[in-house]
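Take a record.
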Amino acid sequence: MGSIPTQLEVEVYIHATESVDKVINSLIDLLTTNAPIIIEVLYGHYGNPIYKVS
């Protein structure tokens, strides 16, 4: 029988047309843990912000 996973890594990319707060709150609800959430701001070809949440 296989082993049980003990670690999970999640990355989410949020584009300018999406609600950053809604996506992050959904991620927090899904994970149900106090793990740190790191937000990095990237920029698209035309300077539009893209948020990388991990």
